[in-house]
Specification:
The chain is mainly beta. Helix content is 12%, strand content 40%. The protein has a single domain (2-145), classed as Immunoglobulin-like (Sandwich).
Length: 146
């Protein structure tokens, strides 16, 4: 009982950091079969003649479940991309998005829940669908395959 009380007291002294959430969102990648993830989003340009990737992601498969995790580093606009499940079809999907309208948002002791993932069912089905990746976001799509 004392341990439980001490744990509750400690919760008031710590915050789930912003870094915790991406680690939590990627943990489902462990031990999955890595699938090819092709991305051809336009590069993001900055400064003179400099650019970097427009979307980056990975997609492990475990049984009849595929988890697609995508980062959109674009801070000024969302990106729409087509997701194609070659040789498979989605039966159901849940989405988790870590994003904020303030790119400097972070959790701290005074405000421990400023930035948290939003989880909700995603109304997709079939072998391909379009998805809008919010600006400056990390998105995880947990897809049940047929």
């Amino acid at each position: 009982m004392a341990l439980g009380r001490a744990t509750n007291d400690l919760e008031h002294h710590f915050a789930t950091t912003t870094i915790f959430h991406p680690f939590d969102m990627y943990k489902s990648h462990k031990s999955g079969q890595s699938l090819g993830f092709v991305r051809d989003a336009p590069a993001i340009s900055f400064r003179a003649n400099k650019s970097f990737w427009g979307l980056a992601g990975s997609a492990p498969l475990r049984g009849k479940a595929c988890v697609i995790t995508v980062v959109n580093p674009q801070v000024s606009k969302p990106r729409t991309a087509e997701v194609s499940l070659s040789g498979a079809s989605a039966r159901a999907c849940n989405g988790t998005v870590l994003a904020s309208t303030d790119i400097h948002a972070h959790n701290d002791k005074e405000n421990p829940r400023v930035l948290e993932p939003e989880r909700k069912p995603a109304g997709i089905a079939g072998s391909s669908f379009a998805w809008i990746f919010k600006l400056a976001s990390l998105t995880r799509l947990e897809i049940d395959l047929v």
